[in-house]
């Protein structure tokens, strides 16, 4: 008895809810119609959510029904209940948290990934999606000027990508001292020092915590959040034993980049592994106009990024790159009798998941669509819009730009914290612009993270005008 017959026989559905589960079209048509409607209005709708979590739960129905429903009706109820509770983060005037938008070609590829529903963890089982992912990885290394012999793993986001890089680093620096962390664990192992800039992103600390490495040792950063290279050199004079250095491509407030050429040289002279957190900034390496920001980063040992933040690929598409594939595979590789275990490394030997969706396929589609020139134009356009927003804001009364705008981040403040926070509230209330409230240099700030492909010169001007209209009375 199939599902259709079982439902009819049980009386669990009335005839209007009987359906053949092999007929995808009606349900997918309903979802497609709602997706098209959402995307058609996302650039113009108010950005903040209009419904709370409790209100969403009530709209969806808090009680699990005794009997099933027509699948298309379920999709309609889902969209009706959830959409008022969504923040329009795909808006071209959304500047919160470094969240990119979504290119149509990337979204379409992601729909195919869901339709194919394959585990991208094994080469021989899913050669189609693995082939696309491996091409995406090769193209990425070429675009960024990273070693062609490096290996690329696809994960959920920059947090997981940092975890991969630090995992490979942990294995490598301990193996250099003849300590096999896979066999012996960390108990009794030589202690590892993790050196970080004082303005690193919190996900570095999180990855170190996951790996049992403890709290990183902070090295003083300059006003823009760049690690001070002289202080890094001094830190090596005070420590012994295995060391990992974490550098940064794109400070979350200033967008600044560490001095990779000097810092990598100092770290490698001391025998340390160098990891680069480039969640949104790694992509500067793909732009001839901006690649000076990443000069020397190719000499590092591992890199982390997130294609959603700058390349506008849908969630989730984190990218972990490791120059020494053996260290990566040693940290994550596994073999089992029920797996095919080819001679080549499996995709699951590069990431902390045996099963995962094909994160890298939408990246391949986006790179194939944009091409080398298109990627550079995208990155340049985001940086140009940030510069335009900064230039417009600084002309407004009471506004101070706190960072050197070198990439895609603009951080501003008013005369005092309350004025800054009130401006943020007014912008959010208007629904036209959202900037992230934060604290930097011990003061309240608003951060404009330009990450959406649709934020062009016109949208930058509209953003400045929205801030101008929100200022009176502050």
Automatic annotation (TrEMBL):
One of its GO terms (molecular function) is aromatic-L-amino-acid decarboxylase activity. It comes from Microterricola gilva. Residues 1-21 are annotated as: Disordered. PANTHER family: GROUP II PYRIDOXAL-5-PHOSPHATE DECARBOXYLASE, MIP05841P. Its cofactor is pyridoxal 5'-phosphate. Keywords: Decarboxylase, Lyase, Pyridoxal phosphate. The lineage of its organism: Bacteria, Bacillati, Actinomycetota, Actinomycetes, Micrococcales. This is Glutamate/tyrosine decarboxylase-like PLP-dependent enzyme. It comes from the Bacteria.
